[in-house]
Amino acid sequence: MQKLDPRARKVKILATTGPASRDPDMLRRLFKAGADAFRVNMSHGDHATHAETIRAIRALEKEFARPITVFCDLQGPKLRVGEFKDGQAVIRHSGHFTLDRNPEPGDETRVHLPHPELFGLLEKGQRLLINDGKIRLRVIKADESEILCSAEVGGVISNRKGVNVPDAEVPIPALTEKDRKDLAFAVEQGADWIGLSFVQRPEDLAEARKLMGGHGALCAKIEKPMAVRRLDEIVELADGIMVARGDLGVELEPQEVPPLQKKIVNKARTAGKPVIVATQMLESMIESPAPTRAEVSDVANAVYDGADAVMLSAETAAGEWPEEAVTIMDKIATQVERDDAYIERVRFLETPPDRTTADALAHACMTIADTVAIEAVTVFTGTGSTARRVARERPSVPMLVLTPSMATARRVALLWGAHAVVTKDIGSFEEMIAKGKRMALRHGFGRAGSKLIALAGVPFGTPGSTNLLHVVTLVGNELEKHEG
Asked: Is 160 a catalytic residue?
């Protein structure tokens, strides 16, 4: 078993696995370079390949004795056009183009749209965006059999290109038949987080939650304007939020995305739910060994906003420089967090505690750490709820999360500032203090003379009972006495 030093960095890095990174050796290199969690994209690959990847990640856990998050991301209900006689066609700028229910191959004037739910739904003036918005159509008229459009932006259209409908709530479930099979596989594999794609309404979370059967945590991916309109309800029902800027950037004007990203991050943080900023963060590193200055600023801004995690997509899944992409993201986040103004910046957002003892104590952790020379906050938790409360306050010191549950440890490994350790449950106040000190010394969270905050609930093992805060001082020989 190798020992890996605790991350100095509080924001987490979520790296997507794929052909460029699923090899066990590359996964190890990405983890050592700074990846804290791995995303398995269910849109690509088969279950056998994904199972092999997850086994390799779990092997890393044993090798380094550190919980690692597995995030299985469902594909969701992607709308697509049909096929063309020659595999593609050219839609003329300002010309007319029809999407219809005729399954015959299309041409430059029409194509089959195999989604009957869209017919009779769309209205004059609404937009259809094809191939990630490269083709922009405006509805002239629509009925139960065809949708006649004007091409505001034409171009080459080919078989099975994706369709975005930004101006209407499409009456399709968030889970397709493929998603249900993929979700069952993810639960069977012990995935720690499930990413639900193309959420439009709070109700979309209900079916996924039911199928998960209490296993793992549910992350709502915000990539539809309709989801933004009901953001408060979605944040309340989800366990975490992802700012999925890919489709969000297609369906909105580009200038609308940055302020919306900040709004979503703030909503999630206020609710104490982990939030991930994703898509195109270091896009140029798919082919280049170094990012652009704009990409560096983009990552830095997400860190300054207080996101729990930043995500790499194709950069690590299929890019030519996966290890370098993780390394530079780690360097950017670490440099930002060294900024004297960083903690002040992430606290621009006020996160007033709820009127509960647990929230009041979590808030007190932050103020004590600001006042006294504290090395870390030690949190004893069974479910991870206490850790989320502390993380919401964005304390100036790291958080050592001690839990008897491996499932909880893996989930909180995606949480801002959290270093999770699986340890036996505690039965008394004295045992809690002694174990907290030992674990802090063993895992590098202080030395002789260092002060720690210990946060827990009495009676021990009772979920939601956080009611105890204690400041302790480490003694150098405590670890040796115990191990001797």
From this structure: no
* pTM of the model as a whole: 0.93
Catalytic residue among 32, 80, 263, 345: 80
Secondary structure of residue 444 in the 3-state scheme = coil
Tens-digit pLDDT profile for residues 98-143: 999 999 999 999 999 999 999 989 999 999 999 999 999 999 999 9
Decide if 320 contacts 20 (C-beta within 8 A). Answer: yes
- The CATH number for 357-483, chosen from 3.40.50.300, 3.40.1390.30, 3.30.565.10, 3.40.1380.20, is 3.40.1380.20
Question: Superfamily for 12-76+173-338?
Answer: Phosphoenolpyruvate-binding domains (3.20.20.60)
381 is catalytic: no
Q: Which of 12, 28, 39, 435 is catalytic?
A: 39
Percent residues over pLDDT 70 in the chain: 96
Select from 2.60.40.10, 2.60.40.770, 2.40.33.10, 3.40.630.30 the CATH code of 79-164: 2.40.33.10
Q: Cβ neighbours of residue 19 under 8 Å, at least 6 residues apart?
A: 317, 318
Residue from 341, 455, 398, 366 nearest 10 by CA: 398
Summarize pLDDT for 351-373 with one digit per residue, the tens: 887 888 889 999 999 999 999 99
